[in-house]
Amino acid sequence: MFPAMSLFDHVNLVYGAISEFCTATSCPDMTGPGQRTYLWFDEKGKKTKVAAPQYIDYVMTFIQKTISDETIFPTKYANEFPVSFESIVRKIVRLLYHVVAHLYAAHFKEVLLLGLHSHLNLTFAHLMALHHRFTLIDPKETDILEDLEMALGLNQEAVEAANNNEERDRSEDSRSQSTEDTCGDNKS
Ligand SMILES: [Zn+2]
């Protein structure tokens, strides 16, 4: 099965479980972490501001329609993938990423209450693995969840870079401590 499809199922499952908390009143904007708001692009490419549940409904409807379209996701041997396949997959992954971003930014409390956080983290890991393998999402978009990615240990390069920095900091610390070793205010 194509990985984007199972990703869709997982995002759908977590969102479905908390959807009663995501209303036009609680979420008038489609927010992500760090004050980010996503605008919906309609079929003519026109941007519109919609409430989060509406945005997510558009996302899920679009994906459902797309993955069941035989001309885009052929299931029969004789049918070939269309030329636009890659850009469609890119779009699906980017939209799912927005939903996951909204779940973390606006509904993590409910996700935790329902005990779905490990499921969400796993879905996020799955999404990021797909992204890192095929560079599907614009880095301008993924920076907002980088901290989380690091915390979950998903971006090995970033984690290593952070560890190296830490080690460098530590050795600088110990150097500065040895020159003024009586202050004893190491709060870390
Ligand atoms: Zn919401």
TrEMBL record:
<keyword id="KW-0862">Zinc</keyword>
<feature type="binding site">
    <location>
        <position position="107"/>
    </location>
    <ligand>
        <name>Zn(2+)</name>
    </ligand>
</feature>
<keyword id="KW-0479">Metal-binding</keyword>
<dbReference type="InterPro" id="IPR005301">
    <property type="entry name" value="MOB_kinase_act_fam"/>
</dbReference>
<feature type="compositionally biased region" description="Basic and acidic residues">
    <location>
        <begin position="165"/>
        <end position="175"/>
    </location>
</feature>
<feature type="binding site">
    <location>
        <position position="27"/>
    </location>
    <ligand>
        <name>Zn(2+)</name>
    </ligand>
</feature>
<dbReference type="Pfam" id="PF03637">
    <property type="entry name" value="Mob1_phocein"/>
</dbReference>
<protein>
    <recommendedName>
        <fullName>MOB kinase activator-like 2</fullName>
    </recommendedName>
</protein>
<dbReference type="InterPro" id="IPR036703">
    <property type="entry name" value="MOB_kinase_act_sf"/>
</dbReference>
<feature type="binding site">
    <location>
        <position position="102"/>
    </location>
    <ligand>
        <name>Zn(2+)</name>
    </ligand>
</feature>
<feature type="binding site">
    <location>
        <position position="22"/>
    </location>
    <ligand>
        <name>Zn(2+)</name>
    </ligand>
</feature>
<feature type="region of interest" description="Disordered">
    <location>
        <begin position="160"/>
        <end position="188"/>
    </location>
</feature>
